Amino acid sequence: MSPLAVNPPAPASTDPSVIRNFCIIAHIDHGKSTLADRMLQATGVVTPRQMKAQYLDRMDIERERGITIKSQAVRMPWNVDGTDYALNMIDTPGHVDFTYEVSRSLAACEATILLVDAAQGIEAQTLANLYLALENDLTIIPVLNKIDLPAAQPEKYAAELANLIGVEPEDVLKVSGKTGEGVEELLDRIVRDVPAPQGKKDAPSRAMIFDSVYDTYRGVVTYVRVVDGTLVPRERIQMMSTGATHELLEIGVISPEPIPSKGLSVGEVGYLITGVKDVRQSRVGDTVTNQQKPAEDSLGGYEDPKPMVFSGLFPVEGSDYPVLRDALEKLQLNDAALVYEPETSTALGFGFRCGFLGLLHLEITRDRLEREFNLDLISTAPSVSYNVTLEDHSEVEVTNPSEFPEGRILEIREPMVSATILVPSEFIGAVMELSQSKRGEMKGMDYLSEDRVELRYRLPLAEIVFDFFDQLKSKTRGYASLDWKADGEQAADLVKVDILLQGEQVDAFSAITHKDKAYSYGVLMTGKLQKLIPRQQYEVPIQAAIGSRIIARENIRAIRKDVLSKCYGGDISRKRKLLEKQKEGKKRMKMVGRVEVPQEAFVAALSSDEDNGKDKKK
């Protein structure tokens, strides 16, 4: 991120009455980034020569996958009836795993554009994001996108959308992000309907940090929304939660590249650079104020995100551990939903136990660490956290099967989620059957229209983090959409399945699973390890056990050396003597020998890619 010398400095500050702050929310792949591209062109902040698809998606991984991972803020000028307005837009992700990004963007805005695909209608994530916007008391502008598609049904879905938010169907704007049709009318509507930001210009300055990135040359770059007062370059600022003070080296707006300005005032969205290299000193949700005249109360920050899925990340080369630690620190600045703590594995060495909001979040994080920091990583199969109550009524949180207590257990509680599934009515039976097979409990069913149904289920998180979404898509020919959120805990009949090699427990392969599925996990793992572990000089049993009870077994056959090859003749007793001698040697070897499991076998059996190849496409 570098300021452009060719850009003239922005004005000192803008009158709050001409500022409009809004964001775009929608289900994944409903055209948010494409609509944002057309807005950038319509307002002239990006010239045709500079324009490229998904302009605000800065990461390679976003372009390759065609999804938005990071919220991006941009300032656009727009003239209505001779008055120049400043529109601050935040483009947000659509996938359920990045809901935390969306919640932070909503807190920095007064309004949101609720975007719905005119060919697909309302989807589960649309509803989830709409409820988030209503909780934040935002003005909602309903918009139908992709009206140029042959399969579009704008009238049908306009009525559905109007019914959902309580407006008339004619109030729903119809646009095409691809052709640009209706975009200018949408910008006019934003100016007319979105309220101007409220704040006290003469009060002590308060600005909320809604995002941060790390720049190798300039240190931490902080994105803020000013609520009260004014921030100007070269003043000393203070972070209200940590008390850290810094000199404000540069302040400015993003339009869509950073442009230094003479200050930011009430309602404005921009960036601050203090030259700080320590990533822990700029926390998302913190309040920035002036050091000489600090504000008394900080702004209400954000709820800390609760990790839902846990996985171990280990460097393939042990010497890369410090690099991985620094990489996670820098990535956490850019992704506040990521949590991690050091972990040691007998098989994989030193690494980190990381908490994610979902499987896509895990996959994207691992991909970013490998690309941006040039690391080779192994990720262990995802798991969730359990609360275990022991006989003495003490409680233990278990995020890793190796932490599972050995003593007598009164109760094990697993995290639950409430899931919303939107599906064409013809697939209701298939979805119900799938949800019940995953230990789901039905909570309700509503018809949104004649042919679209909303199903609500309460499910164990452990059942949906692996292949639930893939199975849902395949059973509904890709039409179903899923959204879920945490919904407390529930006691369950869970057991720890241990894998034993020649009677010795191998911690890395243990898993916590439901009693009914323990046998299938044991058979799967023993079968996989039988193929992966090289044959020894003696027979090696691979066993799956619950406590002291063996539930599955496979044998790795011994490599048999031909001791009779040098015996050309003679009677059978001579050959038998050699075979007996070999048998004794193998028995002795089996008593003292240890089975060495090669690194490749650990990687193949533990890594989420290999263990569940179908997860990769999620």
Automatic annotation (TrEMBL):
Keyword terms of this UniProt record: Cell membrane, Elongation factor, GTP-binding, Hydrolase, Membrane, Nucleotide-binding, Protein biosynthesis
Its membrane topology: Peripheral membrane protein
Xref: Pfam families: EFG_C, GTP_EFTU, GTP_EFTU_D2, LepA_C
Residue positions binding GTP: D29, H30, G31, K32, S33, T34, N145, K146, I147, D148
CDD domains linked: EF4_II, EF4_III, LepA, lepA_C
Gene3D superfamilies on file: 3.30.70.240, Elongation factor 4, C-terminal domain, Elongation Factor G (Translational Gtpase), domain 3, P-loop containing nucleotide triphosphate hydrolases, Translation factors
UniProt cross-references to NCBIfam families, sorted A to Z: lepA, small_GTP
Protein name: Elongation factor 4
